Structures are given as structure tokens and as C-alpha cells.
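wait is this the right file?? whatever heres the structure
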């Protein structure tokens, strides 16, 4: 597995109002890997992701992405972010949406169509985005991100509400991107997706309770699956046998 860190987070602290959301978290994410960010709703996953892409105001600590401070100008063409809600124009077709983002980053219409085909939306390219299903909107939003060929791709719960077939197709795509050298950070609250990742960050109440490979996490907790491992860690923290 590659050892070069694409993302380095050091003692990151984020407050919302007077409430701490992230409590001095640190980690390194290797280039060319898929890292899963898992945890229940309200654990701080979206805040952590926004810190990586540079859209979150932080109280203290540092976030370096590809050797630059998160959100700075050198990263604009190298980092892509797919939000929970599809970031597309409802009054444009799938093709027009992706072509628009392609033009912003100096990509061709041919490359836009390749991105559309790559997420399985070729048969829907002429449909208005506003008329798409939830899963189709998610895939269109992903195509808009992929057309820039990002070195780092950050996805905030991209498979929520999708049927198993579409989820499987997206994860195959994520693995192919990592194999090609891209670095992916994928948030989820679905534990059965965890085994698809090279490494896991388990976030609870604003702190990492684990930062390990799926296999090592199961071995360390003496459990047969990752859901059991997660529960084991939570109970240990709470002093429950």
C-alpha cells in the first residue's frame, strides 16, 4: 500500500458556537487509497470533510492536502467534493451539467461524456437533472466531480438512499479510481461498506476511536465483523462489558 500521505490532519479542533464538534483529531491518509469515514449522525463526519476541502472554519490545528493548506488556490483543480445533496443545476440536462463543469476546468465535451458514461448515466445524458431519481442525481453530481480528474476525491455519504445495485457500481468505480492513483475519502454510516475501504476512521463525539485497516480493527477487537468491532470500541469507551 502506498505510504505517501495525500492528506495530513494535525490536532484539528472545530467548534460550532460554544459546542466542540471535532476535538483535536489527527490522521494521515495515504495517496491512492480509499479511506472510510464512519460514525453515527452528529459525530462530526461532515465537519471533518469540510475541513479537508477547506470550506470549514477551524478553531485550531492544520490540514494539509497534497502538500498545501486545505482550500488554497493550488488545490482548486486537484480536489473534488461531492456533497450529500447533489450539486447540479435542475434546469439543465445531465450532459449540460457535466459539460459546464468540464468547461470550468478546461476539459472537453468528449471528456464530459466519458465521465457520464463512467458513472452509468450515458442513457440518461439528455434528461433534465430535475427529473432524475435520487440515485441518478448522485451519479450526475459524481460525474461533475470526476470530469476534472481530481487527485483527491471527497464524498459525503454518496450512497445514502441508493439501491444495492447502484451502490455496488459506485464502489467499483471508487476502487478503480484509487487503483489509478486517486485518493478517496468516503463518509458513511453504513457499516457494510467499511470492508470496501483500505483504512477506516471511526468517528464518535468528535474524536477518532479507531484509525486502522478493517482487518487489523477486527483483530484488535477480537470480533468477526466491523459492526461488532465498532460496538466493542464504543462499549470499551463507556466502560460497558
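ok assuming it is, sequence goes like this
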Amino acid at each position: 500500500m502506498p505510504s505517501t500521505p495525500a492528506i495530513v490532519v494535525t490536532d484539528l479542533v472545530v467548534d460550532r458556537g460554544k459546542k466542540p464538534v471535532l476535538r483535536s483529531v489527527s490522521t494521515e491518509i495515504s495517496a491512492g487509497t480509499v479511506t472510510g469515514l464512519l460514525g453515527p449522525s452528529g459525530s462530526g463526519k461532515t465537519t471533518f470533510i469540510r475541513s479537508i476541502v477547506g470550506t470549514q472554519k477551524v478553531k485550531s490545528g492544520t490540514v494539509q492536502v497534497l502538500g498545501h493548506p486545505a482550500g488554497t488556490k493550488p488545490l482548486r483543480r486537484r480536489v473534488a467534493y461531492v456533497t450529500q445533496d447533489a450539486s447540479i443545476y435542475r434546469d439543465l440536462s445531465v450532459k449540460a451539467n457535466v459539460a459546464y463543469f468540464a468547461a470550468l476546468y478546461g476539459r472537453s465535451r468528449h471528456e464530459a461524456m466519458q465521465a457520464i458514461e463512467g458513472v452509468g448515466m450515458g442513457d440518461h445524458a439528455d434528461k433534465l437533472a430535475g427529473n432524475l431519481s435520487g440515485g441518478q442525481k448522485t451519479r450526475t453530481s459524481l460525474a461533475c466531480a470526476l470530469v476534472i480528474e481530481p487527485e483527491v476525491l471527497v464524498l459525503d455519504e454518496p450512497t445514502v438512499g441508493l439501491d444495492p445495485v447502484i451502490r455496488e457500481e459506485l464502489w467499483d468505480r471508487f476502487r478503480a479510481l484509487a487503483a489509478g492513483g486517486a485518493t478517496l475519502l468516503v463518509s458513511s454510516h453504513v457499516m457494510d461498506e467499511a470492508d470496501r475501504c483500505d483504512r477506516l476512521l471511526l468517528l464518535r463525539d468528535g474524536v477518532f476511536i479507531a484509525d486502522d485497516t478493517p482487518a487489523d480493527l477486527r483483530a484488535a477487537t477480537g470480533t468477526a465483523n466491523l459492526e461488532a468491532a465498532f460496538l466493542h470500541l464504543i462499549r470499551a469507551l463507556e466502560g460497558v462489558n
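The chain has a mean pLDDT of 91. so i think its the right one actually
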